[in-house]
Amino acid sequence: MAERYDALTVRESNGKSYFTKLGAMFPNKSGDGFTLVLDAVPASVDGQYRILLKVPQARDDRQQQAPAQDRQAQSRNSRFESDPAPSWD
């Protein structure tokens, strides 16, 4: 069993799948279950929130598998993910 799992959401657009990391899941120290830590919540689809849990890939593996245009899209998305939340004051 993995030490952690990435919590992801998948968005389909133009025949492609786009993954956004929402958080991570860890086994409890007691070995009796898991703890899910979310930094974001996915959008609802038909009243359901779908979260995909996957063993994280090594950074080198992710870069080799993604075509150049997908890496560009990931780069654009990562800018938005790292931006601070807007102030609603």
What is the CA-CA span between the terminal residues?
44 Å
**Mean pLDDT score, rounded?**
78
How big is the Rg? 15 Å
Query: What letter string, H or E per element, gives the SSE order?
Result: EEEEHH
* Overall 3D form: flat
**DSSP helix fraction:** 10-25%
- What portion of the residues fall into strands of 2 or more residues? 25-35%
Placed side by side, the strands forming the largest sheet appear as: 3-2-1-4
Query: How many distinct domains?
Result: 1
Q: Major β-sheet, in short?
A: 4 strands, antiparallel
How many helical stretches? Answer: 2
The secondary-structure class comes to: alpha+beta
Contiguous uncertain segments of 5+ residues: 79-89
According to DSSP, the number of beta strands is 4
Structure description:
With 89 residues, this protein is α+β, with helices and mostly antiparallel strands. The protein is built from two helices and four strands. A four-stranded antiparallel β-sheet has the order 3-2-1-4, with no helix packed on it. Strand 2 and strand 3 form a beta hairpin. The C terminus is likely disordered.
Identify the notable features of this structure and list them briefly.
single chain, 89 residues, alpha+beta
Secondary structure layout plus pairing:
Blueprint: E1 5-13, E2 16-27, E3 34-38, E4 52-54, H1 59-65, H2 68-82
Antiparallel strand pairs: 1-2, 1-4, 2-3
In short:
The protein has 89 residues and is of the alpha+beta class. It is built from two helices and four strands, in the order ββββαα.
